[in-house]
Structures are given as C-alpha cells and as structure tokens.
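Exercise: predict the fold of this chain.
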Amino acid sequence: MRRLLVMTLACAGAMTLTACSGNAYDAQTVEDKLKETQRDKVRGLPIGEARCPDDVELKEGVTFRCTLEIAGKPAPYRVRLTDVEAEKVTINVEPARALIATGAVVEFLRAQLPAALSSAKVSCGDERLLIADPGTKIGCVVTVDGKENQVVLRVKDTKGNVVIEP
C-alpha cells in the first residue's frame, strides 16, 4: 500500500500575537494571523477571507473554529489560544479536515507511473481544493493511449495523508 502526505495546505502551526489592553480576544487579529500563516502553504491557490467567531471568551486553552477561504471554498480550522495571561498570546492553528490540493494528487499519481507511461494523462476532477474527512475516497482517471483506468485514493487523516486503494 503506497502512502503519501499529498499536501496539507494548512499545516498545524503556532503563532503569537501581542495581547491588547488586558488580553481581550480580538477576532480580526486572529483572522489576520490565520491568513498570514497559511498564505505560503496553499500551493499557489488564492486565499480569500478568514472568519472567526466574535464572542470567544479569552481563557487558557480555549478552542474554536475559524474558516479560511481557499480557492473559493471555506476551509475549516481549529484554533486554540494558549499563554493568554502572557504578554503574547499563542495561537495554534490546524485544519479541522484534510485540505488537499488536487494538483498534488495528480503529481503523486504521475510519479507512481513507470517511465514508459510518462505521457499518460492524469485527472482527479475539476476542483482545485479537496476538503475531506478521513476515509473519503478520491477518484482519479489515468488515460494511456486513449484507454481510461480508474485509480482510487483514500484520505487517511486530517493531515492530508492518502493511500492508493488496491
């Protein structure tokens, strides 16, 4: 069974922000940091608006959901705030579901083909971003000399690991 971390568009990460006036929660600051940290992790896909709840109580370890528009799709994130009493609050971000660039799946499948089939056409659909839960199957078509062959991959986890189904 082949396995690959295809492309986690939104790798888990921590960032800090300077707390403002008595360490109050500020949704705009968290949204800005979410966009900033994910910009280089989306394989060139366009990033749109980030949205986080306005009414989060700032307490140690508070966890909430935000969304970040990637390639026109709302990608869900889990956000956790720590060090809330410190001068700088730490914001931990991780995707709530697997965020996989379709182009990365195509590249992976193409790399699995023997050199003699380097001219094969590989297609995994028209979507630029796949947002999937573990267990979701991804169907792709490999076309060689006009003959189409179905290849199925399965999402293993929210980090974007996939395996080729036998």
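Check your answer against the key: The chain has two domains: 10-96, 100-164.
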